[in-house]
Amino acid sequence: MSTIKVDAIQKVNGSVPKAGDLGLNVTGSVLQVVQTSFTGTTETSTSTSYADTSLAVTITPTSTNSKILIISTFLGQTTSDAYYDLKRGSTSLGGSDGFMRIELAGDAFPIGMNLLDEPSTTSATTYTVAMRIASSGTVYMIGSPFKSTIQALEIAG
Question: What's the whole-model pTM score?
């Protein structure tokens, strides 16, 4: 068996090669993971427009070809019909009806919203959980003592 040892590998122009430059297929590999947790006080909204919550995560993709997998879990509650959504910046990713419509008033329930996004950027990108009421009432994201999380995983494209 042979062993090759080097201090550094550089491309002809002096830059550091990426895995693809070396013939390695990394498509589908997780390149980075960022997680944010929320354990603050319960957040409420009586608005029929989406209101951002404190449950948000920012990730800076390393390539415009990367995909971002968003995984969010939290405890929600409403007094009437309500919607929960994921946003990239100020853009709703679930549309006017969001990702989740809740019609059960009163009881708190666990909510999980997952999304594979293709932001096509290498700039810092923030994903936020948002909520709104359908017509009247109050929608909640339950805080302490419950722990809410949102993760952003960069997947090589």
Answer: 0.85
